[in-house]
Design goal:
By secondary structure, the protein is an alpha+beta fold. It contains twelve helices and ten strands. It has helices spanning about 5-20, 30-45, 45-50, 50-70, 85-135, 140, 145-160, 165-190, 195-215, 290-300, 335-345, 365-375; strands at about 25, 75, 220-225, 230-235, 235-240, 265-270, 280-285, 315-320, 330-335, 350-355. The longest helix is centred in the first third of the chain and has 52 residues, at about 85-135.
Amino acid sequence: MTLGRMTRAIVTWSICAMILAGCVQAVPPDLVAAIDAIDHDLIAMRAPEAAPEEYGHFVRQWISLKTRVQSDDDLIRWPWETNDLEDALRRLHDEGGSTVARLNDRQVSQRHTAEAKLARLEARLQVIASQVESIDGRIVLGETPVQTDLLIKQARSFIEQKDYERSIQASEKANHALLALTTVLTRELGRYADDKRIAHWQTMAKQTVDWSRAHQSAAIVVSKAERMLTLYKNGRKVLSYPVRLGFNGIREKQFQGDGATPEGRYRVTAKRGQGKTQYYRALALDYPNAEDQRRFTLAKKSGRIASVNSIGGQIEIHGVENELMAQTLGCIMLDNPHMATLFERVTPGTPVTIVGALTGQNSVALALAQLGNREEET
């Protein structure tokens, strides 16, 4: 402090003391503390990102005024004296308070939006996961569900951090990923909801049953969508058993190793009992037949199947090898007691017709419809 200012302060305080201490500090400490608190609130509310211009103006003013406060903290004034510094601080306090209030309202709105978006996405993902599980379509989707789940978890994490804007952005990315999921499922499995395809499958099954009636023989029809094998004898249903398909069985088989179960008309070529198969018992089918070969050749020529892939073979209706073998690689699997019954009732040459579905109300079509309805809701 300079000698002149020190002298002025001593004199002023002496005068104040003589008139009942009527003087006050140049800047009220509580006002400075209040502005400092506003600064902390703005930082906590991410004002540098949410309102960069307003926050930049506030910071510049606050730094300038704080410097003046620090240089004038030893000054005193009369209550009736005007004080430009205090006036500037009060204006800054009001401006900063208004910004805090506006950002708070914005945050509340963003929080509600973020939470609502995330709740809808989580519910929709749960529906999709349930439907995909019911139709065994996990392989169809590949890694996309995992990526979608990570985005949703990220959106939840941002909400916990009160970073609502980034949560909304993550939710929007997750929503696009969910749309991609339904698009993939519809593209890959849409034939299960195609009336012409279903009518074709129904015709195939009817011809198989008619053959059984005409030849007074056994015949088998397998519906992949319903995971059901039905044995006919003399055109009449004899038994129906649930089956398991390949790990990618709901798809139409294209090449060796794709895990898909073929669709078409086949015949039992051999009955393999214990010691002749790795499974409990097995009925070998004549896959690939001439129609399979034709489709495979066309797919290769069109580029839908890579030139290095082969058509594969060794498709069977078989029992379970052991408890660890709960999934077949493209064949049709029955529980061993059911396989034992079926094994005794068929002979080599028995027709086996494998179709996608026998009704438009099949499980895959219903799952796709529910996913579509859910998409419209969101």
